[in-house]
Amino acid sequence: SRLLVVADDCPLDMTWSNFTWAASACSSQNERAKCCRYLNAFVTVSVARYANTTGNFGVPSALNDVCLNYVTQTFLSYGIPHNATLFCGIGPKIHVSYQCQGITSGSEFLQTPNFEDVIRNCKMPLSIENSCRRCVNSSIIFLHHLIGALDNVTLNTCRDAAFVALANQGDNASAIDLASCFFSIKELQILPVIAPQPSSQQISPALAPTIVSAEAPQQLTGFPIKQHRRGTLRLALFPGIGIMVTSLAIVLVIILILLIRKKSGELKSAETTHSKTCDVFHQSHLRKYQEGSSIICQRFRYNEIKKATNNFSNIIGRGGFGTVYKAQFAYGTSAAVKRMNPVAEHHKRVFCREMELHSRLHHRHLVAFRGFCVERCERFLVYEYMENGSLKDYLHCNPLANS
Ligand SMILES: Nc1ncnc2c1ncn2[C@@H]1O[C@H](COP(=O)(O)OP(=O)(O)OP(=O)(O)O)[C@@H](O)[C@H]1O
């Protein structure tokens, strides 16, 4: 459980945030730089809040030690190991008061040349793409103009001072947003779902990297790293949602495939059933017809007729019961194929009777009946092909006949 830290005479307030992420990072040896960025951000935001009421970039020098002690105790009470605060340098590197090139207040900073560029480029929200990058870019340019090639401690102090000046341009929320951008860390106010426990792992001060690598934000050493880190952090916040959405999409696709397959199966089986019913009807009537008939005529297959009529493209006439096609069978015989129109059930019986009649009638003045086809709910009558057209055509169109 967390100890209550009494601020004594330190005017800084560090109760504005939860330190769980920082405690987690600071308990891992692999996240030392991140740990220091967290600690630096907590102190800087606290100083910015203080500057908001006083206008000063930090506590009076008389309160320096008191406040550094307060900050260290606060971190300890939130589970941040003592060796982490030593490693990050609370006091020697992380200050509670910023004196940047003699500037000690926000109003002085605002008068610094080019600072208005930084203010313009650091407008909220900084969480949207490229906005943070723009803000940090202009801050770096500004700082390099301001301090030139001075040491990293000065650079860091001025960076923190610039942060405080900027943070005081907006409200509390924008200060948090700005800190997340400036120090390349998770949004400070987001509460984690699982509170990580501080581990007993020790961070050896002997292993402390240089001030730049341990303390300076990533932005000052390279944007790509920072951009990548922010993207990763955003993703890490919602891993569960990503998995859920992906799973849902997969389930929906599977359901869709099953529905399509079921529907196409139903259609196929309906078609087959219809076709079978049709054919069973025809076959039973044909059997009766063939059983009662002494005449046996040729039965053609549907595909045979389809091929012979060139896929029913050679139309030679239309009558009251169907369309007549010219057919050329593989064995060289020409024929006229009458494709009967679809009719009601009782007409199918008529078709069979007519077939019987046709097959019995033989006369040199009658067109010879060659056969039939009953398949796929279709009926065809096949006749000898008459070369010279119909009698009607002959009587009405042939000039020799008319003369
Ligand atoms: N065996 C055939 N040889 C050549 N052409 C034919 C043959 N049978 C029919 N036709 C052509 O097809 C047309 C239609 O013939 P179809 O027998 O269907 O009708 P129809 O003789 O006019 O009378 P109905 O509709 O009463 O049968 C004919 O006018 C003819 O031009």
Word description of this protein:
Helix content is 53%, strand content 8%. Strands 1-5-6-4-3-2 form a six-stranded mixed beta sheet, sandwiched between helices. A hairpin with a 5-residue loop joins strand 3 (322-328) and strand 4. The protein folds into two domains: 20-196 and 210-237, no CATH class; 298-402, Phosphorylase Kinase, domain 1, CATH 3.30.200.20. By secondary structure, it is an alpha+beta fold.
The number of E-state strands comes to: 6
Structural class: alpha+beta
Low-confidence stretches: 190-236, 291-295
Query: Distance N terminus to C terminus?
Result: 124 Å
**How many DSSP H or I helices?**
16
Topology pattern, helix = H, strand = E:
HHHHHHHHHHHHEHEEEHEEHH
Query: What's the story with the biggest beta sheet?
Result: 6 strands, mixed
Q: How many structural units, i.e. domains?
A: 2
Overall pLDDT level: 75
Into which percentage range does the β-strand content fall?
A: 5-15%
Looking at the structure, what is the overall shape? rod-shaped
Radius of gyration: 47 Å
Chain oligomer state:
single chain
The helicity comes to: 40-55%
Strand order of the largest sheet: 1-5-6-4-3-2
Q: Which small molecules are bound?
A: adenosine-5'-triphosphate
Brief summary:
With 403 residues, this protein is of the alpha+beta class.
SSE map:
Layout lengths: L19 H7 L5 H23 L9 H14 L4 H7 L17 H5 L4 H7 L9 H17 L4 H16 L4 H11 L28 H5 L7 H15 L1 H54 L5 E2 L2 H7 L6 E4 L3 E7 L5 E7 L4 H16 L8 E7 L2 E7 L6 H7 L1 H4 L1
Helix pairs in contact: 1-2, 2-4, 2-8, 2-9, 6-7, 7-8, 8-9, 12-14
Bound molecules: adenosine-5'-triphosphate.
The site of adenosine-5'-triphosphate has 15 residues, from strand 2, strand 4 and strand 6.
